[in-house]
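Exam prep: given the inputs below (a chain plus zinc ion), describe the expected output before reading on.
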Amino acid sequence: MHSCSITRRTVHSATHTANDKAGQVFECSLNKQDIKRYSRQLMLDSIEDKGQAKLTRSHAVVIGLGGLGSLVARYLAGAGVGTLTLVDGDTVDISNLQRQVTYNEMHLGELKAKSLYNELRKVNSRLNIKFKSLYADSKNLPTLISTADCVLDCTDNIETRKHINTATLRASIPLFIAAASGLSWQALNLPQNNKRIGCYACLVEHVDVREDCLSKGVLGPVVGMAACHQATQALLFLAKGFSANIKWGHYLTGKADLGSLKSFMLPPSSTCEVCHDPN
Ligand SMILES: [Zn+2]
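Solution:
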C-alpha cells in the first residue's frame, strides 16, 4: 500500500510519510485511490491528510437506522470512517421512504441494518462495516460500543436514548445525539468524560424531549438537517479528536421554517442519578 504526502489544498504524489503543521512526521495509511476519493475534504483545515488517516482508523457506532441513522451512516461511509457498526432491529416500511432517503421500494420488508450494510458496501467496499439487526438495550450496549471512538444516537425513543447515555458515560465514549419532529430539530454533543457538562439524563430534567415524529409528524428534510449536523460534528471529532473546533454540551435547536438556531449550555444536574458524583 502506498502512503501519502499532501499539503492543504494541494494533492501530491504518494510518499511514505507526511508532515503535520508542527512538522512532526507521522505514518499515513492513505493510498493514491484514497487521496483521489477524499480530495474534496482533504482540502479542509478541519480534515487534512492527518485527519483523514485518523478517520480511516476510526470506529463509529450508529444506533437507530431511520431518517437520522441511515443518512448519518451514509455520510460517515462516504467520508471514509474505517469501521462502522450499524444497529437497528427494525425493517423498512413504506412509511419510512418519505424521510429515510437511503432506502427505496426494493428494500421494503428487509432488515434496515442489512439493507443499509448492502448500500454502504456499494459506496466504499474497503470499509469494515458490521451490522447488528437488534435493538440496543442496557444489556447489549456495553459490548456494541466497547471499541467505538464515538457513538451516534439516531434512535427515536427516550428509553433507548437513556440506555445509550448511561453506556457511553460508563465507557467514557463521546456521544452525538440528534432528533427531529415537526419542523424543528435538536442536537447535542456529549464528551461523556467532563464533569462540567451534563448528560442526556440531565437534559431530560431541563427540556421536554417527549416529542417524536410518530406523535407529531415530521418533514423529511428536517430529519436530514439534524442528521447532517450530527454527521458533521462526529466527522470533525473523529478527524481531530478533542482539538476539533466543535461545541460540547450545547443543546442546539433548529427551526427549519424560520431558519433559526438557538443553543444553551447543558450543565450537570446535581440530582442526576446517572452522571452526578457526590464526591
Ligand atoms: Zn446527568
